[in-house]
Structures are given as structure tokens and as C-alpha cells.
Design goal:
CATH superfamily: Endonuclease/exonuclease/phosphatase
CATH class: Alpha Beta
Structural class: alpha+beta
Helix content: 10-25%
Distance between the termini: 41 Å
CATH topology: Deoxyribonuclease I, Chain A
Number of domains: 1
Number of strands: 13
Shape: globular
Order of helices and strands: EHEHEEEEEHEHEHEEEE
Length: about 280
């Protein structure tokens, strides 16, 4: 299966939405013992794979601070620039895509004093601004209570920032490692009107597989803990969980978002005025 994106032209299939932009979400697995030991060897292969997938926006988590400069330099060689980042959560965009405004989101409650953060950045894709938010939630609370609390904090702050930027909720894109099989998705995102892209995509590939694969393991059926979510009104052209190559302990997933008939480019009559 070719992962490179299609040209942003109107689809011949009347049920397939016009392409807005694609989002590639990757957990680099850089903080645990195995991740640290293998990071330098894996990253060039991961960057090559990012180039192969070729989505406009790349969200990464578990990027250790000492590795940011080297990773960013490699990303620049394949045509991506660093848009925003904090404490392991970073957003890269294809060179030429305009970004403006970025905010670090401090997530609560903390688990044993460990601070978790998210990052939000405004991305203008095809003249229509979006807010892309990426995060990595707590992984040590087996009950899921902290994950739900942190996700609620993430959505509260992300929506508030979107409102400040004049971006409607239908143009917010969430990409995160929830460390939750179900609760975060149902109790937070669905409760607030957001859906898993796999649930609504015109083309959904491998939705029944787990996104977390223990080191040395193989893809298997199960719940995904990694999530790309959009507002229920947002058309999704394609969503794919990629079963190969396995370069970390999480599988890569991407989504191609569609244009909504209500999207009005700022240059058009009646278009929104961006602050």
C-alpha cells in the first residue's frame, strides 16, 4: 500500500471529501530504557519513513530534549520545519506551510508530581486555519483516572486557545498517546463532540489493531491507545494504522482530513478574521 498522499483535488468518488491536509502521529519511544538505548539508531529510519508517508503535519511525542536539535536537523533535510514543542511533544510542518501562534498546555492532575504537557499550534493549510494539538498522557495510573483528568484539561485549554485564535472547534485536530484503551476516548473526546478519525473516515485501514506493540512484538488485534480525533462534523478522507515498518513500540498512524462545506478561506467573502 502506497502511503504517499494524493493531490488535493476534488475527488471523483462523490462520497470522498476534498483533501484538506494530512496528519502523521508518531510516538518515538525515546524515554524508556530500550528507547534511549536504540534512539540514535532508529531516528534516521523514522525520519526516512516520515518522508515516505509525506503528510503535511507531523506530531511526535517522546522526543527527549537532548535529541531535539538532531531530530530537527534531519527533519529539515526532508522538508519539514519545527513549528512548536515542549517536554517531548512537538509539531513539525512541511516547509512552506504557515504557522502562527503556539501555546504550551500544562495538564492536571499530576501523577506523583510528574508534570505532563501538551502543545498547540495554529497551522494554515490550503488557506484554512486549523489548531493542531498534540500530547502524551500519563502511563502509570492503571485506573485511567489521571488520563481522563489530563485529557479533560487538554481539551479545556485547547478549546480556549482555539477560541482566542478565532478557530472553530470543527477545525481542531487532536493527536495524542492517551495511554487509555477506552475511557479517554469515550469520557472526554466523544463527550465533547470529537470522534476517532477511524470511526468516520471514508477509508479506514487496520482500525482493529492495537497501536502499542511491546518491543520485539508483532501487530495484534486490540484497542488503540494512540488517537487522532476531530470534531464530529469534520469529514475524514482516510485513516490508516500502519502495521509496518515497526520502528518504535508504537505503530505509526495518519489521517487525511477533508474540507468541510462550511470552511471559508480567509480571503473569501465572509471569511474569518484571524487575530
Amino acid at each position: 500500500m502506497v502511503d504517499t498522499p494524493e493531490e488535493p483535488t476534488a475527488p471523483t468518488d462523490p462520497g470522498r471529501p476534498e483533501l484538506w491536509f494530512g496528519v502523521d502521529f508518531r510516538n518515538l519511544a525515546g524515554f524508556n530504557r530500550h528507547g534511549r538505548r536504540t534512539f540514535d539508531d532508529r531516528i534516521p529510519r523514522i525520519v526516512d519513513d516520515i518522508a515516505h508517508v509525506g503528510r503535511a503535519v507531523v506530531c511526535v511525542v517522546e522526543l527527549p530534549n537532548p535529541k531535539i536539535a538532531g531530530f530537527t536537523a534531519l527533519m529539515q533535510t526532508i522538508g519539514y520545519v519545527h513549528a512548536a514543542g515542549a517536554r517531548g511533544r512537538h509539531v513539525y510542518v512541511e516547509d512552506g506551510i504557515h504557522t502562527v501562534g503556539r501555546k504550551v498546555l500544562d495538564l492536571r492532575p499530576r501523577y506523583r508530581g510528574d508534570d505532563k504537557q501538551g502543545i498547540a499550534v495554529q497551522v494554515d493549510a490550503r488557506g484554512v486555519p486549523a489548531l493542531v494539538v498534540t500530547a502524551h498522557l500519563e502511563n502509570r495510573d492503571a485506573s485511567g483516572t489521571h488520563q481522563v483528568g489530563q485529557a479533560t484539561s487538554l481539551v479545556d485549554q485547547g478549546e480556549a486557545y482555539a477560541e482566542k485564535r478565532g478557530i472553530p472547534r470543527s477545525r481542531i485536530v487532536w493527536a495524542l498517546d492517551t495511554n487509555s484503551h477506552q475511557r479517554v476516548r469515550t469520557e472526554v473526546f466523544e463527550h465533547r463532540g470529537y470522534v476517532d478519525v477511524f470511526d468516520v473516515a471514508h477509508s479506514a485501514e487496520n482500525p482493529g489493531y492495537r497501536s502499542f506493540v511491546p518491543w520485539g512484538g508483532s501487530p495484534a488485534l486490540g484497542s488503540r491507545i494512540d488517537l487522532i480525533a476531530v470534531h464530529a462534523s469534520r469529514p475524514v478522507r482516510r485513516a490508516r494504522l500502519r502495521l509496518t515498518p515497526i520502528l518504535t513500540d508504537h505503530l505509526d498512524l495518519f489521517a487525511d482530513l477533508g474540507m468541510d462545506p462550511q470552511d471559508v478561506r480567509p480571503s473569501e467573502p465572509g471569511g474569518p478574521v484571524e487575530s
